[in-house]
Amino acid sequence: MTRSPVLELRGLSRRYGQTTVLNDIDVTIPEGSFTALLGASGCGKSTTLRIMAGLDRPSEGEVLLSGKDVSQKTTHQRNIAMVFQSYALYPHLTVFQNMALPLTMRHLSSLGRMPFVGAVAPGSSKARNLIAEKVGAAAEVLGLTDLLHRKPSSLSGGQKQRVALGRAMVRDPVLFLLDEPLSNLDARLRVKMRAELVALHRRTGRPFVYVTHDQSEAMAMADQIVVMIGGKVAQAGAPRDLYDRPASRDVATFIGHNAINLFQPADGMPGLHPAADEAVIGLRPEHLSPAATGALEANLETAEYLGSEIILALRSERGTEIRAIAPGDYAIPAPGSPVRLGFEPTRLHLFDEQTGKRLEVAS
Amino acid sequence: MIRSFISRAWSTLFLVAGAAVILLPFLWMLSLAFKPRDEIFSADIQLLPSRIEWSNFVVALTETDVPLFLWNGFVVVAGILAFQILFAVPCSYALAQRRFKGRTFVFGMVLAALLVPFHVTAIPIFLGFAKVGILNSYGALILPFVPTAFGIFLFRQFFSQLPSDLFDAARVDGLSETAIVWRIAFPLAMPAATAFAIFSVTAHWNDLFWPLIATTDPHLATPPRGILYFRDEESGDDVGPLMAGAVIITAPLVLAFLLAQRKFTQGLAAGGLKG
Description:
heterodimer; A: alpha+beta; Rossmann fold; CATH 2.40.50.140; 6-stranded mixed β-sheet; 26% helix; B: mainly alpha; MetI-like fold; 2 domains; 14 helices; 76% helix; globular
């Protein structure tokens, strides 16, 4: 990768009293990237984001911004913008004032920020014009021009979201941090805002770090996903790498729209792979489909017809549950009848039974 | 239907009776203030004066020190309120939204201070002020009330309900902690501040105890203290102007309360002190 890193976390740990929230993590955010921090709630992804922002301090390790250690600097000094899950708009200020506040703090002296007196402070009218211009430009990009004089309480969820983005955008930060920004929106708006976020990312050209627990959101938007499990980085890489070569059983479970089938050695599935009696075998439902000459046989329990595809739930002779996906035109046999399933051997994942780590397929 | 009507009628009746008992001295004050001299001491009880007598007010405002007392009251009450807010708001912000060692202990001390009546500390404060030599000054009337446990408690309850994301956002936007207090936290706490202001202003406008102890100079007399001078020296048994003076002194509070009534109840509800 030729892109130089904007932000690096090195050997970072965070402890609160006895509990370790982050345990020796390394994360690199390259120039212009869209990174998703993906993990279940409580895995430390929000803490990681707060440490990147400078709202929290690491117990150990370094935070490097453009190669320089910034552990002791505030968010504002780092020039990092952050969008909060709850948007955190100031309820008593108008949309314009909300978006202008970071600029006010930067461009106006403390005298210039005072009410009444500020209007006559030297240099303040020039600074005010500059602020109005920048806020106006950001508002136009986000379609907020008509709302600038409204208070946040009179805005819809999507509009609040845009104001929060606008407040982050106006000061042209070196890095955008977004903490589950779409989780408070309804499903349809969420998909729309996804596209807007990606467009905004292209337009600004700045790296985005996006915290989410929704793997489909991460897969859809990010070019780098950092999967965090239990305060550690389980795997970091491009979405396709994570899907094709998950580093561990846990990552394999987390990534992918359909939950992966995991066969323990005790399940006795010898038809799958020569190593089936000593390793855990992972096989995604979408790579397992009915085939007349398939290596596996199982009895059909239920079938969910989704139009484009059919999700089959089956049970093997030894009682192991298997999920497979059949094409939409597949003729569903009666429940209980045996179905032969085929798969591509390259799609098989092997994991160590004890550690859960990926084993390279020998065959 | 009828039963609920009867129970409502009963409760209304009790409320009216209670209100009448409480309001009677107040109404009597109003009535006397507007009565001509010869009607005040008449043997029969008459609530409404036969004609409105304005001269009581003219006497109270021109021939006595009531305007001075009002001015003193204003200076003391405004001074107390301004300093109380200046210190209580940052203090309660720190207690509600900052993490530091001994935070729980400090808040515990604030709660404990709520239980101590002012009369307990009055004598030590008086002796201290006497040593420093600042008795008989506006300072002596204002200083003892600047640290307010009640104010800190009220604002803390309000601030602890605000989402901490809001303050993190302000930090991201480059506000210092002081700027967060005055630009974000305080404007949001306006309902609580209004409620607190009414408590503070009423208590100190009406306070007689401390001004009686801390000042002997008539030129520093607050309104209740002033009324005492008034009765002794100027009017003797001239009740009309005395009552007119009392009306003038109570009027600002009544007006302020009526104007801020809605904000007041809002602030109490928001501060978690319902009831």
